[in-house]
Specification:
By secondary structure, this protein is of the alpha/beta class. The chain folds into three domains: 10-211, 3-Layer(aba) Sandwich (Rossmann fold); 220-380, Rossmann fold (3-Layer(aba) Sandwich); 388-577, 3-Layer(aba) Sandwich (Rossmann fold), CATH 3.40.50. The strands form five sheets. The protein has a six-stranded parallel sheet with strand order 5-4-6-7-9-8, with helices on both faces. Helix 22 (555-567) links the parallel strand 22 and strand 23.
Length: 623
Amino acid sequence: MEQKDLTLQLTVAQAIVRFLANQFIETDGQSTRICAGGFGIFGHGNAPALGEALYEARAILPLYRGQNEQSMGFAAAGYAKAHLRRRFMFCTASAGPGTANLLTAAALAHANRLPMLMLCGDNFATRLPDPVLQQLEHAGNPALGVTDAFRAVCRFWDRITHPAQLLNSLPAALNTLLDPADCGPVFLALPQDLQGWAYDYPADFFEPRLHRIRRSPPDPAEIEAAAALLAKARRPMIIAGGGVQYSGAVAQLTDFATAHGIPVVETIAGRANMLWDHPLNIGPIGVTGSDSANTIAGEADVILAAGTRLQDFTTGSWSAFDRSARIIGLNAGRHDAAKHLSLPLVCDAQAGLAALGRRLAGYHAPPEWLAHAQEVRQAWNGYVARNTAPRNGLPTYAQAIGVVNARCTGRDRIVAAAGGLPAEVSANWRSLGIGTVDVEFGFSCMGYEIAGGWGARIAQAERQPAGETVVFVGDGSYLLMNSDIYSSVLAGHKLIIVMLDNGGFAVINKLQKNTGNASFNTLFADCPTIAQPFAVDFAAHARAMGALTEEAASLEDFAAAFDRARAAERTYVIVMRVDPHEGWTEQGHAWWEVGTAAVSARSEIAAAREGIEAGRAKQRRGT
């Protein structure tokens, strides 16, 4: 008699949670649950059914209570980045505005190729109670709703309309979250009624499964072509992006560069691929880079772009390289590997660098080329030392960065995001540990700093010994999103938050002035709709959310405060005023294309436009 297949009767929500709880990944020889838990804010669209399932699994899939859905997504992104995409967290939000709040976070994860799972409430599958609370009605398309907005910002999107669909959708979603080339956010729209519907699922669907990150080997013909091009190079250079870290290829990058005498520059996402004083590390490249990296980028004849999507801040809007230079795109993603007619090498970075190294055995770049690169790097080191040194007047971003840098160790993680601080961190930070710098410039998203730092701290707490998590945030980003100070205190995840107050959006004010515009609506002092500018008591505000706080009136006070923050046991916020006009890092910038007015009554704008147009002469045009 044939035995009947075993089944388990579960609700849709219970099936999702049970599936996630039984997916494991092998890292460093150990099996670890891929999904580390999640962040959630409950509402009518997810609390009754999904909340019930998560409550039963709370011991193995901890649910952190968020304060804002957008910041929950940022925290999940910060967590995934700290784990080099080998673990992820989910976010659950109610229908309507709760789900809509996740849009920005999904876009950030998409731009940065980060795994994040969103389990969000949706309208009723039956449509019997329509229109329901928070539903957007479209008379010509009753199936269209808020959740459809996520199609543009996700790598995988699905609306579950029958319980059986999970049998196909969940494995496909997980494959996206773990795929080196297509990694990114996953969105599952879960109608409120359907979350609680029961179905007889095959029991083996929930058996524990061990996954491994795919390492795509290089195509032999592509290796031959790349090696042939590099073997002729007289001035080769490697651009090391964030994909080098995600591949676990830092050692292979160092070995390859050392064996062949090739200088290495880092993208913003690739910061801390090498320690700052490694003899082959020539500095950060691009718009917020270094004179050293940009100098050799302009002189290189062959460029190996490893694990980078070649964003405009890396390429100087494609002006940083000589027009005759050839680019080899080593990337797990075909789309990134072939940009600007690069010679594609579509493969895992670790496998590609190893294979290319074997094929190039015996090749060594001319020693005078590396000596030249090291000479300009030493000059840049001198500039950074002067730039971060104390001087009269209000402190600057760079000086504050220098104080923190001198007090950090190789275990501490640095987090910064959009505004002036990420540019200053990228240019001035001296990496003390591999993979310890998270500067969010992929989507350049204000508000990421504190929330992303919280997610990074959760990841750090899973390793011992754990260093500090240091968050750099300006007053503009702080005012945009700060509630995860409270989250970090509630959860016992200590952050050191350096809050530098320059009176508004000072870096955009700097852009206004650099493009000939009047200061307008960026600094609080220049906002015509503000009747009386006033200073927020940031320290008191952070203290009200449970953090230890203090204000620093000088760099000496700031240094002492940072030492006290290191010794503290809970989140510590240090507030210091910095100069909004003076002390910016003026060197190290590549040309950057920004839109300017072709016609204006201001002569300053016409002059600035001429300068920007002159820079276009070096811009590559897709070749």
